[in-house]
Design goal:
139 residues, mainly beta, 2 domains, five-stranded antiparallel beta sheet, two-stranded antiparallel sheet, 2 helices, 36% strand, elongated
Length: 139
């Protein structure tokens, strides 16, 4: 006995990447699309070009849904793909930021080294701070 299909139709969710099949003009093509925004009237996408760069585009929902089909969900990236060479920069070597998060290591007193008489140098990297002399102050 054959019953109804169990396959559910995929719906766009903001912040996710999908593989979309375009079947306009009877030619099938595939494109990777990051969903930036969904409104009642339109979608805002970041679309990947053939060279791997991304661009922004608004598309009317009705026309897009007639000409395209979501093939599969691909990924939920931490950051959206960069557009026009704009990269996201996370500064982790900012001295003021690190100063607020770190404190001198209590094992090596901030030197990064502890005595070890089993080696010829007489000391080794501190096992608590891994030789940096600092630990996170929020530990």
């Amino acid at each position: 006995m054959v019953t109804g299909g169990t396959e559910q139709e995929l719906q766009f969710e903001v912040g996710k990447i999908y593989l979309v099949e375009n079947h306009y003009f009877h030619n099938k093509s595939y494109q990777e699309i990051y969903v930036e925004r969904v409104t009642d009237a339109a979608y805002k996408f970041r679309k990947e070009r053939a060279d791997g760069t991304w661009y922004l585009e608004w598309e009317e929902r009705k026309i897009f849904d007639q000409r395209n089909r979501i093939v599969e969900y691909l990924d939920t990236p931490t950051f959206p793909p960069s557009v026009n060479g704009v990269d996201y920069k996370i500064e982790i070597n900012n001295p003021e930021y690190l100063k607020a998060l770190t404190a001198p290591c209590p094992v090596c007193n901030g030197s990064g080294r502890v005595p070890d008489h089993s080696v010829t140098t007489g000391d080794k990297a501190c096992p608590k701070c891994f030789g940096s002399g600092l630990i996170y102050a929020v530990e």
